[in-house]
Every structure is written in structure tokens, then in C-alpha cells.
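Summary for the steering committee. One of the milestones for this cycle was to obtain a three-dimensional model of the protein with alpha-D-glucopyranose bound, which we needed before selecting residues for the alanine scan. The sequence and ligand used are listed below.
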Amino acid sequence: MNIVFMGSESVPFIKTGGLADVLGSLPKALAQKGNDVSVFIPLYGKIKPEYREKMEYVGAFFVDLDWRRQHVGVFKYIIDGVDYFFIDNEYYFNRNGIYGEIDDGERFVYFSRACVQALKFLNLKADIVHANDWHTGLVPIYIKEYAKGDSFYSGIKSVYTIHNIKYQGVFDLNGMRPLLGFTDEYIHEDGIKFYEAINMMKAGIVYSDLVTTVSKTYSNEITYPYFGEGLDGIIRKHSNKLVGIVNGIDYEKYNPETDKMIDYNYSVNNLENKKKNKRVIQKICGLPERDDVAVIGLVSRLVELKGIDLLEYVLGEVLQMDVQFIVLGTGDYKYEEMLKFYERIFRSKMAARIYFDEEHSHKVYSGADLYLMPSIAEPCGISQLIAMRYGTLPIVRQTGGLVDTVEAYNKFTGEGTGFGFSNINAHELLFTIKDAVSLYYNNKEEFNKLIKNAMTTDFSWNYSCDEYIDYYNRLINNKF
Ligand code: GLC
């Protein structure tokens, strides 16, 4: 089967969120199962020279956008058996940032059209085109449109994955209309119109052949107004083609037995080395180097959706306990300042590392005992999977993918792979942290059992990859 992914980010090239992790690992898993897989992403200026130098120039063509003809350069890089194609246009993608530009709408109309036209330019005979998040929401429309006049595109099935319904790509209708290049056939309430604007995620939902989201619980949640972010109605309308498939992680990259970014490799049968990693991260963070203290880690974008507000209410109390708390990440200024404030007050207990560094994140995953993820909404979540793989027990709010992947500790049966609380309530968070810390100090045997459970649960792509293949096959055989 020939599968082409289209999206805005992919590791190792460029990353702002979990979308990049998925586009950097699911295609590889599909390729390992014998499929021909390609991925299209923009050639952002921020992509490092070490990758650019190894890219092969394939050729160039043009895309018409309103009265302009825009250049499309195509570069290729093969990694893990997957062909990555980079869409090059300096005007659109050689900027300081990745998103948040005044012309984001135009940039991703351009990208979506360039990707779909590139299929033909490269003579890439895709069975499935798999678009992701708002940036490529228009792709299913272009496939339909181009198929009207060109048999090359007929028969291609489109899949659209919602990684996070909060970011929809909503742009001014009148400004965008000339750029879109299609008729008003699609611009109405049941199409891409969203009040007086256009909504690119809505386009993906309405016009793709299959809509997926990244966990089963989230696929149900987004049918309700609280999680649907204004699109719950359209989700309900198209629920017959909506499925939830939970994300996995790359088991080769995230493997405590072989990971070169951590100082001491370990496995479920040799947890002694995990303690040495605790010392490493304590040293990096300037915290007292102690084996016997509960270390809590948090690696995240620092935004409201990730539950940082909840944390703010109780952080002072959390730090009254004998714990060390390490935060790694950047985000909203107010949260960055809040965390730095607590660091100043609790020098020996708290480290607010307001940056992101891949290697340090691995050191936190391997060196901490507990991992905090109090998300308000979480489509899937990747870092709790990584934490469990490294034997670091997650403390999560039970929402979305966190419900599907973390089995909350049950003190009566002793089962679990982490700790959970259900309501958006700061004190529930506090009490759950207290329960977890108390288990760490008072019942090592039970705590270690949870570590074993977490480390031996399979969070690789294996099963989910088969689910995707199954759905792709159903689409190709018109059996969906
Ligand atoms: C988004 C979601 C996250 C999910 C990721 C990959 O970043 O917020 O929950 O794991 O996409 O699908």
C-alpha cells in the first residue's frame, strides 16, 4: 500500500508539539510493515543544516495562488525507510517562527496545494493521503477538486487526523477566498464556512473519507461542546466516519536500555541504574543530590490546556512536602514567571528550566520517580507514554488519551501504571500528588510493582499501526 502523510511538523526535522512525534514515528512503523510511505512537510528555515546538507533536490514547479505563481521546490531525505519530501518556498517558510505569522492562512493554503500537486509532479501513486491538523485540512478538498479534471487523482482516499481540536485554522473568508482556487461549492455552513470565516480543520472533517483522532476517549469527548471547541456539531454529524486510534511511541528511540541521551542505561530488571540517573538530573538542576527523595518531573509546553493553572493553585503546598520538582519547557510568560518565582522561594526543591532540550528531557524521564500531567484536555499525550517506558509513574488528569493509556492506581487491588484524578480541581491534583508521594515513601514494594507494570505495558506503534492499516484497507476496498 502506498501511503502519503502531509503535515506541518515531523521529528527529527522540526517540532513544536506531539504532531511532530507522530509524523516522525507512525510512518516508520508503517514502512516496517512493508508499506511504501512518504511524508510531506514544509522546508522551514529553522530546519538544521545537518539535515539540509543531506537533502537531495528533486525539482520544482509552480502553484497558482490568486494572481500569483508561487515557486515550489521539492527536496527529499530518506530516513528509516520513509521518503520525507520538503516543500521549499523561502518567502513562506524561511521565517523566524513556525506559526503565528500574519499570513498563516495563505502559507498553509499554499502548502496544501503544493503537496497535492507534488503527488503528480513526483508521479507518486498514493492509495491513501493522510492529512493532519488544521495546516493540511484543505488537502481532502484539493484531492477531490483535482480528481475532477485529472484521472491521476481519482481513487485516492483521504484520511484526516485531528491531533488537537483546539487549533483549527480559522481565517477571514473574504481574504482567503481568492487564494483557495475552488468554487463556492465548498464554502457554506456544511462545508468550510465557520460563522463568517473559513475553518481549515472543518474542511478536513467534512471532506475526508475517514476522520481519526488520537485516542478513543478523545473521539468521544469531542462530540460534546466542552471539548468540541465549536466543532462538536460537525463532529456529531460526521461521527459515522470518526474513529479513535491511540498513538504509540518509537520504541527504538525511547528505550532506557539503549538510549544514548541518558547516562546510565537500565531495564525493568535493573532499576538500580535509574537511581544514578536521578543524581544526574539533580546535578544538572542544582538540586541536592539525594537518592531518597521523590523527584517529580514535568516536560511540557507551559499553557493552560496542560493544566498549569491547576498546578499554580497548589504548587506552594506541593513544595511543603519532601519532594523535588523539575519543570522543563517554555510557554506562556505568566506560567514561566510563576514557576521561576517558586524556584526562587524553594531553591532546594524546585527547578524551573524554562527551555526545551531533547537530551535533558530524556534525563528527566529517566531520573524522575513521578511525572506530572494534569491536562485539562489531552487528545492523546505522548510524554506519559515515554515516562512509563522509563519507569517514571505519571500523575494525570483522567481525560482523553490519558484515560486510555494510564491505568490509575487502585489501592485496593494494587493495580495500576500511574495515578489519576478526574475533576478539573486543583485540590484533587494536590491529593493525588500526595497519595503518589506517600506510596513512594511508605510502600516501596507496591511502588516498584507499579513501575514494573508501567515498563512492561506495550506502548509501541505495533497495535495502532495495524489499526491504521486495517482502516486504510477498508477505504481502498470501499468497505468503510
Ligand atoms: C497534540 C495533542 C497531544 C497528542 C499529539 C499527537 O499535540 O495535544 O495530546 O498526543 O497531538 O497526536
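Key point for the committee: The chain is about 40% helix and 20% strand.
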